[in-house]
């Protein structure tokens, strides 16, 4: 049974810069452009925004910088930083703030110039003293450790992991905004350079610039907007910081965040029409499919390799091409929510999932450290 928070707030605007390689544009430029695009989509202006939720890897005080740049007058702000899942954490915070009347229009925004500023996968501002002596490649060695353990415990194969990258590329080929749209096969993934055993370069996400934003308001105001998408459920969880402290390398805290989101929404995995999973690496998609209940533990590899998550499969997953083929500007979580919302609004062109009414967007932060799950619904679900 759903709880009282189901459908209390809605996304009424989305913005995405589609500038995946933009020399000369700062992280704040990307966040500002995405915010203005989302507000335009909602039929609002910066004068309407009184709640701001943002996190940028380029800034220790993103709320202050973004509020100043956009000229916002705020009644509420939240700069929670838990890595790439921060923006789904922000959805949960916005639910509380909007419901309590602490703000009326909430803006969630993000921007990055990671690719043009240097091309490293992520910055690592806080040292990891128990792992640093072993000189891991951060963060890929952490994910490689999880992949190796999953292969050991469940018989997952390299070919199964590669099928996840191929499925993402097949979706990306239907998305004119995706950065990588060329053909890709399993043999290509297996033959690419090993970065951290057992993961190769094509098991890894892209490194891009980019910006994304969402505008949210309460359900009673959402009906005044053209295409609201309702937040049916949301959950979050924090597990560890260093991968060596992860309780079980084959099970993530997505099991907890997903359980909370399903409970709030009054739904289960079998009622989800469309899925967006944070795919920083192929092993992420596999483990999140399991932990969120779309298949049992240990069967994620076979499920993906069956074609179930690819175009034409039974469960449309990462329909924009994901972090593996569309974009990945350091903190990808907001883009899972944007694509989920756009699918429910029917605005995805050739990759549109027919009849999609319920979508799940899941985000990951750190090294499988923080997890957050949002379930979104079209107006027909309210």
Automatic annotation (TrEMBL):
SUPFAM superfamilies: Thiolase-like. Coiled coil: none annotated. Residues 235-377 form the Thiolase C-terminal domain. It comes from the Bacteria. Pfam families: Thiolase_C_1. InterPro entries: Thiolase (IPR002155), Thiolase-like (IPR016039), Thiolase_C_2 (IPR055140). PANTHER family: ACETYL-COA C-ACETYLTRANSFERASE (PTHR42870), NON-SPECIFIC LIPID-TRANSFER PROTEIN-LIKE 2 (PTHR42870:SF1). This is Thiolase. It comes from Paralimibaculum aggregatum.
